[in-house]
From TrEMBL:
Swiss-Prot/TrEMBL keywords: WD repeat
Protein name (database record): WD repeat-containing protein PCN
One annotated GO biological process: meristem growth
InterPro entries in alphabetical order: PCN, WD40/YVTN_repeat-like_dom_sf, WD40_repeat_dom_sf, WD40_rpt
PROSITE patterns the UniProt entry points to: WD_REPEATS_2
Length: 788
């Protein structure tokens, strides 16, 4: 009987998401957090496949105010160049290969509230037809007569991909222009080229208030800016003069000089959309600045706006936690004279809202066909654009900014298990002590508990952030790296009575060259430190002798055995694993390519191109056979690789492409594996923040029956329904006695870490989400409970 020990006392303080942006090809979403870090997420049209591909640790003292992903020549590539503005007045580029934040515009001495890139010249939409048929909110009768509202909306969706023409071809193909909304009331325009720095172009005249929002017209000839004096201004970009201004307070709930225009959109149908501090979302005619419609469904500031690719749907998000959908609808204005064709008038109508967040929603972005939004509660949710009101949002990040952890068993300190927990600016080592154990099938509110005693804590400087860390299997050595250098420590002894340890700091030789960025994975094994360095875009796994601190070997990765080294633009390594016998090192890049190195011969042994086109989410070598590497991918597939034979293992050849459907619909992204610490065991526990699944490679893989589908699909539906389980989960539910392969166990609270303590016991580290919410600086959105 597998017994579960729970720890819920860890400090987990994720940071709020402050900005979002979608790549030029809509395949990735960038999310900037308040702590200066940036995450890159792979987009998936469903609940399966979302994957946090990269994390870049930026300047924690520079708060990001806006993100934009713009194309600019070969330097940006298919994704484009990812730029961010900061409250300190600077603009940075996020290098996805060097994993660095680089300033491309030094501080101008004035806060930048928002940046907007002009529409790229290869954006393909049928604008000519839309502009012709949607003029000043009216539609050409030949396009709309005899078509109902629902039919017209569906036809618009179907035509999104059929009609494609180039809407804008800028005269100067050398750079893309970037508009900056500045706190001094000006809009500054810069050019984004293949050069390292931005190029100054011009500044629009200063206005009375602070410029808080900015956007471009679809043809890039006009700029619309919103300010803190309650005005929207339309600017001629070429002549740099104001064409007209709109008094926003006329159609909203509030008026006066204290009205702030937080967000603007310029749609291809000739409509401007504004969101302001009164909670109003208003639609304006872009030719004359007249009001078309006004909606005031938000109960607080409207922080963000976003439009569907067809520009017939608009989403708004606010400080009340709501995301609201507005839809372009047609109404026929009839005439008593049958000779005249009824005229169709386009109106923006309120459709509905979804409230999934507990705090303010700060950002919105569209990644076809998904709407992506995030807020102060650190969560990221994905909505269906076309089925917004029919399907609940998908929580793609149930455990945001999960702290890296590592558990080592049977250490030299009286066989005491040690737990390493990596925080942003500190590294903690705990002794794990087991209390009275309760089996996971007990009806109590939780499983057996375990306690932790702090043995050692290492802090780095406040201006730095810990990127990666590791601890040796004996528990005597551990290491971490920040942005500047690696640091090595030795744990001399542990005082069991006082729960403290004696540390000594190791050092690397003075002539040892330090990399520009010391990357994410360190592995201590048999006295060697395997590390991954990045030198101007090249990744270079290195082996360092811990005792002498000498560099043993630096690998040169190749895509083929004996082939040439990788190009400078090769994606960075995000994961590394070593076999239990110390022979193999597996290095995996962010796209899922796997490099196998032989630590005995110090040569590359094998290259595996990305499996099923998906990224690798977790992996490890089995204790039973050090030549077998288990890999889990973001598409919920499991592979067993025979490293020595350079081929798929026998189990994968038979079962990988016929896994049970209940596993393919695994709730949440797989974030880790746990092997039983036994050379005779053939099973592994695969876990996500929401559930775990036992896979035994020695047992047959049965097809789904009705019970399996109920347990698998039903569990997924219940987990995804309004972000909560419809039924109460008493502790951890499992069937390890008389179990079948691919048995599931749902977690009650978000899980951060799972690892075997022994063959019959498991350590689970979780945290109730409400306790995490209580640590946030911002207060949750107040919701009135009926009857109180």
């Amino acid at each position: 009987m597998l017994k579960v020990h729970r720890i819920s006392s860890v400090e987990w303080n994720p940071s709020a998401v402050v900005a979002l942006a979608t790549s030029a090809d809509s395949s990735q979403v960038a999310a900037a957090r308040a702590d200066g870090s940036l995450e890159i997420w792979l987009v998936s049209p469903g609940s399966v496949g979302w994957h946090r591909q990269l994390t870049i640790h930026g300047d924690p003292n520079s708060r990001v105010s806006s993100l934009v992903w713009c194309r600019s020549g070969p330097r940006g590539g298919p994704l484009g160049r990812l730029l961010s503005s900061s409250i300190d007045g600077s603009v940075s580029e996020w290098d996805l290969f060097d994993l660095r934040q680089k300033k491309v515009l030094d501080s101008i001495g004035i806060s930048i509230w928002q940046i907007a890139a002009e529409p790229c010249n290869d954006l393909l939409v049928d604008v000519k037809q839309e502009i012709k048929s949607h003029e000043n909110g009216h539609a050409n009768p030949s396009f709309t007569s005899g078509v109902s509202e629902e039919e017209n909306s569906e036809s618009e969706d179907e035509d999104d991909d059929k009609n494609a023409v180039e809407i804008h071809d800028h005269n100067d193909a050398k750079h893309t222009r970037l508009a900056l909304a500045c706190d001094d009331g000006c809009v500054r325009i810069y050019g984004v080229s293949d050069a390292e720095k931005l190029t100054y172009i011009k500044t629009l005249p200063r206005v009375s208030g602070r410029t808080l929002s900015v956007t471009w017209s679809s043809d890039a000839t006009r700029i619309y800016s919103g300010s803190s004096d309650g005005f929207i201004r339309c600017w001629d970009v070429k002549l740099a003069h104001e064409i007209y201004r709109i008094t926003v307070g006329l159609g909203g709930l509030q008026s006066g000089s204290d009205l702030c225009i937080w967000s603007l959109l310029a749609l291809r149908c000739g409509t401007i959309v504004s969101g302001d501090s009164s909670g109003s979302v208003q639609f304006w005619d872009d030719k004359f600045g007249t009001l078309l419609q006004a909606h005031s469904y938000h109960k607080g500031d409207v922080n963000a706006l976003s439009a569907a690719p067809s520009h017939n749907r608009v989403f708004s998000a606010g400080s009340d936690g709501q995301v609201i959908l507005y839809k372009l609808s047609s109404e026929s204005v009839g005439s008593s004279d049958r000779k005249f064709v009824p005229e169709a008038i386009k109106k923006w109508i309120y459709v509905g809202y979804v409230r999934a967040h507990t705090h303010d929603v700060r950002a919105l972005t569209i990644a076809v066909p998904i709407s992506h939004e995030a807020g102060d509660d650190t969560k990221l949710f994905a909505y269906s654009v076309k089925e917004f009101t029919k399907f609940s949002p998908h929580d793609i990040c149930p455990a945001p900014q999960r702290m890296p952890m590592q558990l080592v068993l049977k250490t030299v300190f009286n066989q005491t298990p040690l737990l390493l927990i990596q925080a942003a600016h500190s590294l903690d080592i705990y002794c794990v002590r087991l209390k009275n154990t309760v089996s996971d099938t007990s009806p109590g509110p939780s499983g057996g508990l375990a306690s932790t005693d702090l043995v050692a804590r290492v802090k780095c400087k406040a201006s730095r952030k810990i990127i990666c860390s590791t601890i040796s299997s004996s528990g005597t050595s551990f290491a971490y790296s920040d942005h500047l250098k690696p640091n090595l420590f030795e744990l001399k002894k542990i005082n069991q009575a006082r729960a403290c340890g004696l540390l000594t700091k190791g050092s690397f030789p003075r002539n040892y060259r330090l990399p520009i960025t010391w990357f994410l994975a360190l592995i201590l094994h048999v006295g060697w430190l395997c590390r991954n360095d990045i030198w101007f875009g090249h990744f270079e796994p290195q082996v360092v002798d811990v005792g002498s601190a000498e560099l043993v070997h630096a690998f040169t990765p190749c895509r083929k055995d004996g082939g040439e080294s990788l190009p400078p633009s090769e994606p960075p390594i995000t994961k590394m694993f070593t076999s239990t016998d110390g022979q193999w090192l597996a290095a995996i890049n962010c796209f899922g390519d796997v490099y196998i190195f032989n630590l005995e011969t110090l040569r590359q042994h094998w290259f595996i191109s990305r499996l099923d086109g998906a990224s690798v989410t977790a992996g490890g070598f089995t204790p039973q056979n050090s030549n077998v590497l288990i890999i889990c991918t973001s598409s919920n597939q499991v592979y067993a690789l025979d490293v020595e034979a350079k081929q798929l293992g026998e189990w994968s050849m038979r079962h990988t492409f016929s896994l049970p459907r209940r596993y393919q619909e695994f709730p949440g992204e797989v974030i880790g594996l746990s092997f039983q610490p036994s050379s005779s065991s053939s099973s592994v526990i695969v876990y996500s923040p929401r559930a775990m699944c036992m896979i035994d490679f020695g047992m047959p893989v049965d097809r789904d029956d009705d019970t399996d589908l109920a347990n698998g699909q039903g569990l997924t539906r219940k987990l995804h329904s309004n972000g909560a389980l419809k039924r109460k989960l008493h502790g951890l539910e499992s069937k390890h006695n008389g179990r079948r392969n691919f048995d599931f166990c749902a977690f009650r609270d978000p899980v951060l870490f799972v690892e075997h303590l022994s063959k019959s016991s498991l350590l689970v580290i979780d945290k109730p989400w409400l306790q995490v919410v209580d640590t946030f600086d911002a207060q949750p959105v107040h919701r009135h409970i009926f009857g109180t």
